[in-house]
């Protein structure tokens, strides 16, 4: 597939969303956000396609974003425990004869 073919297909793919994309940009969405909504990898490709698109198509709204899963909380590391639940670093011999 030639580069020109890919560019032509990309512009045809974004053509129905040109007005919705312009509105989304005015609302503060980034090109990466818009590409993600359209299921396209490569924000630059979407930006270029919108800029160069001269296709006339019936306009439709952008797809709704998928619900975001709650961010994973990082768990604090716990001290390893030995037999009987005692912390292993407590069972090491003391250095210096103390």
Task: List the main descriptive attributes of the protein structure presented here.
elongated, 40% helix, 4 helices, 98 residues, mainly alpha
Structural features, described:
- The chain is an all-alpha fold.
- It has a domain of 50 residues.
- It has 4 helices and no strands.
- α1 packs across α4 and α3 crosses α4.
- The relative contact order is 0.15.
Broad structural category: mainly alpha
Q: Please report the total strand number as a whole number.
A: 0
The share of residues in helices is 25-40%
- Strand content is under 5%
Average per-residue pLDDT, rounded, comes to: 79
SSE topology string: HHHH
> If you compute it from the alpha carbons, what radius of gyration comes out, rounded to the nearest whole angstrom?
27 Å
Number of helices: 4
Q: Main sheet?
A: none
Shape estimate: elongated
Distance between the termini: 75 Å
Low-confidence stretches: none
Question: Quick recap of the structure?
Answer:
This protein has 98 residues and is mainly alpha-helical. The chain has a domain at 3-52.
Question: Secondary structure elements and their pairing?
Answer:
Blueprint: H1 3-14, H2 18-26, H3 31-38, H4 43-52
């Amino acid at each position: 597939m030639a580069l020109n073919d890919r560019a032509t297909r990309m512009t045809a793919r974004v053509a129905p969303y040109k007005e919705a994309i312009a509105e989304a940009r005015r609302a503060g969405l980034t090109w990466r956000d818009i590409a993600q909504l359209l299921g396209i990898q490569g924000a630059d490709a979407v930006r270029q396609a919108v800029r160069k698109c001269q296709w006339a198509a019936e306009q439709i709204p952008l797809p709704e974003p998928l619900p975001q899963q709650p961010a994973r909380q990082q768990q604090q590391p716990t001290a390893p425990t030995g037999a009987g639940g005692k912390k292993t670093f407590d069972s090491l011999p003391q250095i210096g004869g103390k």
